[in-house]
Amino acid sequence: MATRCVGIVMGGSSAEREISLNTGRSVAAALEARGHEVVCIDLAAGIDPAAALRAAAIDVAFLALHGRLGEDGCVQGLCELLQIPYTGSGVLGSALAMDKLKSKELFRLHNVPTPPYYVVDGAAARADLEELHGAFGYPVIVKPRREGSSVGVARANDAEELSRAVDDALTHDGSVVVERFIAGREVAVGILDGRVLGAIEIEPKSGIYDYEAKYTPGMTEYHMPARLPAVRYRGVLNLAERAARAVDATGAVRVDLIVTEGQNEYVLEVNTLPGMTPTSLLPKIAAAAGYDFGELCEAILARATLHVAAPRVEQSGRVPRAIPIESDDELALAV
Questions:
Q1: pLDDT per residue over 91-123, tens digit each?
Q2: In terms of residue numbers, what domain contains 167?
Q3: How far is it, in rounded angstroms, from Cα 121 to Cα 228?
Q4: Which of 15, 45, 301, 311 would disulfide-bridge 151, Cβ 3.0–4.6 Å?
Q5: 253, 190 in Cβ contact below 8 A?
Q6: Is 275 a known active-site residue?
C-alpha cells in the first residue's frame, strides 16, 4: 500500500483540455485501484497553479496535462521551484519537444531525418506567403508551431488551401510550420525511461491522422506491432530512440514517424506527455510489451523526479541575498 499523496495534474487551459481531463481521470482511477492516495488537481483557466499545487499538499505530481502551459516546460518549471517531483521530461526537454521548429532543428543537428519545412512567423510573413512558399511544392502539412494532438493541423494541396490552413493555424499560434507531405505509413514508438517498448502502425481512414481521426471512434485502425520487416522495424525503434535523445526527452515518451514504401523514415515529433487513456497509443504499445494500464501508470509514477538540483542554501535555510550594484563604476566593472 503506497503512502505518498499523488497529485494528478490535469485539465489546464489549452486546446487539449478535454483530452487532458480524460487522461487524468483514467490515471487517477488506475492508481487508486493500486492503493495510492490520489488528489486530482485541475489547472483550469483562472486558477493560480502555484497556489493549487501548494494547497493540495502532494508528495509527487503525475502530469496528465497536454498542450500549451502544461506540456511545454511551464508546469515542469513550477514543480522544480516548489520541489515537487513530477513525471515526464524536465523543463528543457518538454520545451524543446513541444516547439516543432526547435525540435526539427535539433533533429537535423543530430542527423535524425525529418520532413523538409519552412516557417510562417506571424502575420507579417503570412502576407508574403506566396513568395515564402515559392517552389516548395504540394501537398504540404500545416501545423501550429506549439500545439499538440493535431490541433490546427491540415493538409493543403494548392495555394488556396495553403492560405486557409495557415490562417487557421495562426489562430492557435503566432508561428506556423509548413512541412512537406511524405506519403507513407504513420508509426508511433513508445519509450519508457529509455527502454523502447515497441511500435504501432496508425491507419487513418481519412488519409491524415488529424484531430478528428485521433478522437472519433472508427476513424482509425491500429496495427500492433507495426507491419514492417524485422530489420526495418528495429531501425524505426532505433531512430525513435535517437529522436528522443536529441530533444532530451525522458520518462514516458511517444515518437511519431512516417515510414515510406522505400527505405526512408522521417521523425515528425516527440511527445513528452502522451495520452494515457486505456485506448491511447502509448498504453496500446505498452500492453504488447507486457504492461497492463495500471502497471504502466505505476511505472511512470515510480520514475517521478526533480530534474534540477535544489539550490545550495545557508545553514539558516535562507538563500544568500543578492547585493544590488548601485554605482556606475561598479556597473561598468560588472559588465
A1: 999 999 999 999 999 999 999 999 999 999 987
A2: 116-180
A3: 37
A4: 15
A5: yes
A6: yes
